[in-house]
Every structure is written in C-alpha cells, then in structure tokens.
Write a structure and sequence with these properties.
Helices cover about 0% and strands about 35% of the residues. The chain is mainly β.
Length: about 240
C-alpha cells in the first residue's frame, strides 16, 4: 500500500526501479520476466494496470527510470503496487542458480503544468494475457477474446498502449522468443500493425557486465532492459460516446 498525492498538477511522473542483488550478493543467474503493477480493488475483484515490464539481467543489478505520466489519473491517493519477478530461485532453493533479487521502487512527482494530451481516463482493454504462438493448430486470434470499450462522450483523442513480449521456445522457429512476427490489433475491424522485434540488445550499456545470451535479438525484449511500449493513436477509428470493439 502506498500513498500518492491526492492533489497537485504534475509536469511529469517518473518511476525508478533499483534492482540489486540480495544480501549475500548472489543475484539470479538468469534473465527473468518482471513487471510493476498498479492494483485497483486488490482481492477477488482486482484490476491490474502494468506500469512497467522489464527483463532482469543475467546475475547483475540495474537501475531504470521510466516516464509513467500517462497513468497520472490513477496515481492518486491510497493505492496498491505489486512487484513481480518470475524467478524460480531464492535463499532456500538451489544455490547454483543464484538467490534472487532486491527491488526498490520510487515514484518522483515533478510539479508543473501537465503536458498537453495527458489522458483524463485510463481504462483496461486486456489487463494481462498469455497466448501460444508457433502452433498452426492454435492461432493467437482464437485465444484472445474481443473486448468492447466505452469511448466517453467528449473524447478528443484516444490511444491504445500495448506491451507485448515473446517468451518460450519449442514451436515453429523457436517461437515466441526468437521468431519475428507482425502484431495486428483490430479497432472496429480497422487493422493496426506494429513490429516489436528488438535488434538492439547488443547496444545495452550494462550488457558486457552480464553473462548469458544478452546480445541476441528477441521478440520485444532484451535481457537487462525495460520493455518499450507501443502507443497507437486510434482517434480516427473510434467515436466519442459510442462503444468500440
């Protein structure tokens, strides 16, 4: 539970994540999926908003500073923040794989006039979903339900923020981690396509301090880096006051 300011105007809101090794200095040896969630109504009816997704580096720490100003409408008052790392190790697990991580998260509110275009509402379309790729008999489009979103009356701009990463191997072309796929989202049957492939993993400034395969190109992510979201301007294909699918 955290207490965000209830009043004030913010030019920018940053989230800083410090990822360090545990007290014994033995970080997790592998690159792990991780994220920071804003949790509304924690419990049975909770709704989660992914503030940031990142991948841990191989056995070294890192520090990230991310602009989360778009979430300003929801970063107010008493909230719940959840930090999660898909690590399979820990103090009581096999010591030859490391002992996990320490995570410190800080939010930095910069006073000033809010930037133009800042959303007045942030709503979920898909909170978090996992699909299988690389299996011709189980297409992604058959695994994801259509969503209907109410476009509020008076809306002048609508954006869709998408965070997608591919993990796992074994299907065709070692999908989903190492295959290049075009991502397509339909907004009222209008296709929006984007390419999430990361071909700059070997430019990572902390790369040489890591072990492992940090320099390989991957589907939307690199070891030891935060995941770049895709922001699609869908204003032209939605109508204020009308539901959109």
């Amino acid at each position: 539970m955290v207490e965000f300011p209830t009043t004030g105007e913010w030019q920018r809101i940053d989230m800083k994540i410090d990822l360090t090794c545990p007290a014994d200095g033995d970080c997790d040896d592998y690159d792990r999926f991780a994220n920071v969630m804003l949790v509304e109504n924690p419990g049975d009816a909770e709704e989660t908003f992914e503030l940031e997704r990142y991948i841990t580096p191989f056995n070294v720490g890192m520090c990230m500073l991310t602009d989360v100003t778009r979430f300003a409408p929801r970063l107010k008052g008493t909230k719940t923040i959840r930090s999660w790392i898909d690590t399979w190790v820990g103090p009581n697990a096999q010591s030859n794989y490391g002992h996990g991580w320490r995570v410190t998260i800080k939010f930095i509110f910069h006073p000033g006039a809010a930037p133009e275009g800042l959303p007045t509402q942030v709503v979920n379309v898909w909170s978090y979903e996992s699909v299988i790729v690389g299996d011709p008999s189980n297409q992604p489009i058959d695994q994801i339900d259509n969503k209907t979103v109410e476009i509020p009356a008076g809306t002048t701009k609508a954006e869709l923020r998408v965070v997608t990463t591919g993990h796992g191997q074994g299907n065709a072309n070692n999908c989903a981690e190492f295959c290049t796929l075009s991502q397509v989202i339909l907004v009222d049957s209008v296709p929006y396509s984007y390419d999430l492939w990361r071909d700059d993993c070997d430019d990572n400034p902390i790369g040489p301090t890591q072990a492992g395969t940090w320099q390989y190109d991957r589907a939307g992510w690199c070891p030891g880096a935060y995941v770049l979201p895709t922001v699609l301007d869908i204003t032209g294909d939605v109508t204020a006051g009308v539901d959109s699918t």
